[in-house]
Specification:
- Helices cover 40% and strands 17% of the residues.
- The chain has 367 residues and is an alpha/beta fold.
- A seven-stranded mixed β-sheet has the order 3-2-1-4-5-7-6, sandwiched between helices.
- Keywords: Magnesium, Metal-binding, Methyltransferase, Transferase.
């Protein structure tokens, strides 16, 4: 089965991801120093087969969407690598050329991404459409790879949660936060499969000692999957759709077969997955950054709604089709988020535990 394509809203309009990705930018800004310092400390200057310093350094940002956050990530990586060269006595005059590959789903709005490139950028660019859960690049071709706020998106909705009669059928809900153990396990198992596929692909594409930087939204350690603030925020989309289904505004059958393809792991879930691949990767840096969700004012709530709309509207419209009034859906969603923000549950789980991890491709057995 091929991966499904879940792209963010394109363009640069009011509901676009480009205009509504400030939460991701804030998360990246909080981890920027970690990214810069960990790459500078762990980057290995490579020699080619003739014993000369590699003259082209290749970087990939996986799940780049349409900008502008991806450009800030790439700039930070390049600055860190350049500093590594400039502070090395033998290589400070041998700066490589930089080639950057921007990857996202085939349905991503690459035209908007390309229009955002700075004319004075100091690197060559290419767009790479395709799912990062599988191979994207030739063997041992990449030096540094990066992804932020993308790996919680699954390659597909687990099949069993949308099938009537299945023990994991998630009837009337779009996430796992208030569902049975079977539903939670289905989402968790899909996340594990996807992450294993992601790391397996990167292990082939990275050179020996190549670096992979990850920034992943997580729930806090030692909490249940139902204690994820992000999953609850997406579940409010389902509650809004359920109200519309009761009023005959959308099909109940369509609601029963719809789930948002996300899973919010704990930091240890991610760490243990990497540790299970210790023959391929070593963890060089691991930091958990608590990030509060602010829903204290109507403006905060409206910003949250705009952000979620930019990320999930395409998935919703693809499933429900032309019968869905999206303006009404997201107006109802505003009120659901407002109600949720006043509950004790929100107060107890309002933090997102963004996980920053830098891993290195082991030189042993590198391809």
């Amino acid at each position: 089965m091929e991966d499904e394509s879940f792209a963010m809203n394109g363009g640069d309009g009011l509901n676009s991801y480009k205009k509504n990705s400030k939460f991701q930018r804030q998360g990246f800004d909080a981890s920027k120093i970690l990214l810069r310092d960990s790459i500078q400390e762990n980057f290995t200057i490579q020699n080619n087969l003739n014993g000369n310093i590699t003259t082209i350094l290749r970087i990939a940002d996986l799940g780049c969407s349409v900008g502008p956050n991806t450009f800030a990530c790439v700039k930070t990586i390049i600055e860190a690598v350049k500093l590594k060269f400039e502070t090395h006595q033998d290589f400070k005059t041998q700066l490589p050329e930089f080639q950057v590959f921007f990857n996202d789903q085939v349905s991503n709005d690459f035209n908007t991404l390309f229009k955002g490139f700075s004319v004075d950028r100091n690197y060559m660019v290419a767009g790479v459409p395709g799912s990062f859960h599988g191979r994207l690049f030739p063997k041992a071709s990449m030096n540094v790879m990066h992804t932020s706020f993308s790996l919680h998106w699954l390659s597909r909705v687990p099949e069993q949660v949308t099938k009537e009669g299945s023990p994991a059928w998630n009837k009337g809900r779009v996430s796992y936060v208030s569902s049975s153990d079977e539903v939670v396990e289905a989402f968790s198992a899909q996340f594990v499969r996807d992450m294993e596929g992601f790391f397996a692909a990167r292990s082939v594409e990275l050179v020996g000692d190549g670096l992979l930087a990850l920034l992943i939204p997580c729930r806090q350690e030692s909490t249940l999957p139902s204690d994820s603030i992000l999953a609850h925020i997406y579940e409010c989309v389902g509650l809004s759709l359920a109200d519309m289904a009761k009023e005959g505004l959308v099909s109940e059958d369509l609601l029963d077969s719809f789930n948002v393809p996300i899973y919010i792991p704990s930091p240890s879930e991610v760490k243990n997955l990497v540790l299970g691949m210790k023959s391929l990767f070593s963890i060089e840096r691991l930091d958990e950054l608590l990030f509060p969700t602010n829903l204290s004012t109507p403006n905060d709530i409206r910003a949250c709604v705009s952000h979620i709309r930019a990320t999930v509207e395409g998935v919703v419209c693809k499933h429900f089709g032309s019968e869905l009034n999206t303006e009404e859906l997201f107006e109802r969603y505003f009120h659901k988020i407002e109600e949720f923000s006043k509950t004790p549950r929100f107060t107890n789980i309002e933090n997102v535990a963004n996980l920053f991890m830098l891993v290195k491709r082991n030189a042993v057995n590198s391809i």
